[in-house]
Design brief:
By secondary structure, the chain is an alpha/beta fold. It has a domain of 264 residues: L-arginine/glycine Amidinotransferase, Chain A, CATH 3.75.10. The strands form seven sheets. A three-stranded mixed β-sheet has the order 4-1-19, with helices on one face. Strands 7-8-9 form a three-stranded mixed β-sheet, with no helix packed on it.
């Protein structure tokens, strides 16, 4: 290997150090996901629960995709103007049938939210199992980038978690029929409190967007996209590098990814969704005994979520950090922007609301590849057993 290729490409220990290099997803060719055990969007998009709705899927309308592309490109421009290297996934034909020896699925989705798939931990990038059949092959969109990083950086560790089989045994039977059969969030919360999720404990499952990274400690969300076995796989794997993994659950009706429940904008401060408090008190206690400030997020600007997205009204909390003093935030979330401004952050408003149908917001759309900084122990005081 020539000396000019021996450089550090991958280095990312937390969510807030100064950003130098990032992957930003794409929405081109996106699909409304075909019904599968992990996800059924039809009843929500057609606003009724019947067989026609459950079988509703196909390409998004061209004008919806065009608006998404416009906003994604604007976000990329904002990052590049700040001197940040931006890489993009390679597009695939998402309107195609995919299969393994265990199942056949009618379509893929898109490659807008690479955060769900890839978890940077220092000089390592872990490819998550993923829990949706429609997203089983989505990692291929970023495969050329991983190959490039591997060739450029001799210290880059490229790891893939065990690929799941995703047979029917990995999913709770008739989950979506019951889910769409009620609009009562308290009923849904009670199921979460009882530990009833759409995925079972048949095999390790986790999405990378369920992880909140803070140096030697990583908090992993247990919910509809990550199970206990997935958290245990991460715990065993990362323990070899001295990383501590902590499980966290929140009192929320639809526990999907972590990044609208609790966020760390800088060392010493936890932002908490006031409506989705942790079900395990050890989570907040660990921050308190290490003298961290726990701040409740300002109420969201909108009372309703995006009409074409199943994501919650709290999606505006899904910001993306450019450094310990600078954050990108959905432009319409004025209360949250004002709150961060008063706390001393430079807030970069980004118009991103209409990207929601494709899989999330600013944090979802990114994978931070290089942030300045090293592995720090922000929680020297630990809680035994947590």
């Amino acid at each position: 290997m020539s000396t000019q290729l021996r450089k550090t490409v991958v280095n990312c220990w937390n969510e807030w150090d100064l950003l130098k290099h990032v992957i930003v997803g794409r929405v081109d060719g996106a699909m409304i996901v075909a019904p599968e055990p992990a996800l059924v969007m039809g009843p929500y998009l057609k606003a009724k629960v019947d067989e026609e709705a459950f079988n509703f899927w196909g390409p998004w309308p061209e004008e919806v995709i065009a608006r998404g592309v416009e906003l994604m490109e604007n976000f990329v421009s904002i990052l590049e103007k700040r001197g940040i290297r931006v890489d993009r996934p390679t597009l695939m034909n998402f309107n195609q049938r995919v299969q393994t020896p265990d199942w056949v699925h009618d379509s893929m989705i898109n490659c807008m939210p690479p955060r769900d798939i890839f978890m940077p931990v220092g000089n390592e990038i872990i490819e998550a199992t993923m829990h949706q059949r429609s997203r089983w092959f989505e990692y291929l969109c970023c495969r050329p980038l991983m190959e490039q990083y591997f060739k450029e950086d001799p210290n880059f560790l490229w790891t893939a978690a065990p690929k799941p089989r995703l047979t029917d045994e990995s999913f709770a039977k008739d989950f979506w029929k019951e889910f769409w059969g009620t609009t009562d969030d308290e009923v849904r919360r009670e199921r979460v409190r009882r530990g009833e999720f759409k995925i079972t404990e048949k095999e390790p499952l986790f999405d990378a967007a369920d992880a909140l990274r803070a140096g030697k400690d990583i908090f992993v969300h247990h919910g509809h996209s990550t199970n206990s076995l997935g958290i245990e796989w991460l715990r065993r794997h990362l323990a070899q590098r001295g990383i501590r993994v902590h499980e966290v659950r929140f009192d929320e009706p639809v526990p999907w990814h972590l990044d609208t429940s609790a966020m760390i904008p800088r060392a010493g401060m936890l932002l908490q969704n006031a409506d989705w408090m942790p079900l395990n008190p050890e989570f907040h206690e660990l921050f308190r005994i290490n003298s961290w400030e726990i701040v409740m997020c300002a109420p969201p600007e909108r009372e309703d979520k995006h009409p074409l997205s199943t994501a919650s009204k709290y999606l505006g909390y899904n910001y993306f950090s450019l450094g310990p003093k600078t954050v990108c935030v959905e432009a319409s979330e004025r209360p949250f922007i004002e709150q961060l401004d008063k706390m001393g952050f430079e807030v970069v408003p980004v118009d991103f609301f209409d990207v929601a149908p494709f899989g999330g917001a600013l944090h979802c759309a990114t994978v931070d590849i290089f942030r300045e900084g090293k592995c720090e122990d922000y929680f020297p005081k630990q809680i035994p057993g947590y």
